[in-house]
Amino acid sequence: MREAASRTAMATSLMRALHSRSDASPLLDDPWGDRLIPNSERDRMSQRILTRMNSEARARALLTPDSILDEFLRTNAAYPGVVIRSRYAEDALRQAADRGVRQYVLIGAGFDSFALRRPAFSDALDIFEIDHPATQLMKIERIKECGVSLPESVHFIAADLVKEDLATALTRSSFQRNEAAFFSLLGVTVYLTREANLATLRAVVTCGSEGSELVFTYVDQREFAPGGSRSPHNQNARAVATMGEPYVSGFDPKEIAKDLADVGLELVEDLDGNAMSERYSGTSANVLQPPASLHIVRARVRSRLGFGAGG
User: What is the pTM of this model?
Assistant: First the structure.
């Protein structure tokens, strides 16, 4: 994974941890979100934030240096969606596990800490974490530095999915294609082309037996039109692009059911940012409001395609 993409994975981990310790009734308890990110990396992130401030704002921030990173993360537009998508995915995973699903595949796992923070739940599953070798190695080394050993049921699969398809990556593990699985693809589709996203969805159908499920996030395609917040003409989008993470594509909410059906998936639920907030507004003390253009989808494999199809 590119350095900038690793920064995103680290920021996501820190956002989950920040929510866990700053909300009186958090949607999830993730103390590992902080522990998995080395202090040296957090210091670098804080320094990058400071360099982008004007002199007056920098002077104020330096009065409380420990809060620089937390304040940046808390006010980031991605923060509410990161928290809710993690909770939503694990709620859906729980329902799948209650139906007997025993395989959990995290596509673009980053610094996800599910196996560390929820052992009573995760120990009953075979967990397959797929991510770029550089990001995954950083995570594995950090877990060792924390003096923790994960059970043998957690499988790390190093793969650059730009160069290798999901089905091929899973063949290098003990994943069972003839058994149902639960897949998550969180915070990834916005950085892939439409063709790459559809190929990934097809690969999920290829790998997952009938009844397998997928939870993924996407951004309304209208946001990529001129003037939209994800448009390459938008200042924020340009800033992200300079770090090596250009926004690339989204989906049309009016067409998402058809897009899924075309690859062999059945739409179960599609929540926009407003519906996501409403779903959990009575659970958390602080109301989290993702952008309305952010969506989270739950879909189910309705048929099996040939092993090589669409990967």
Answer: 0.89
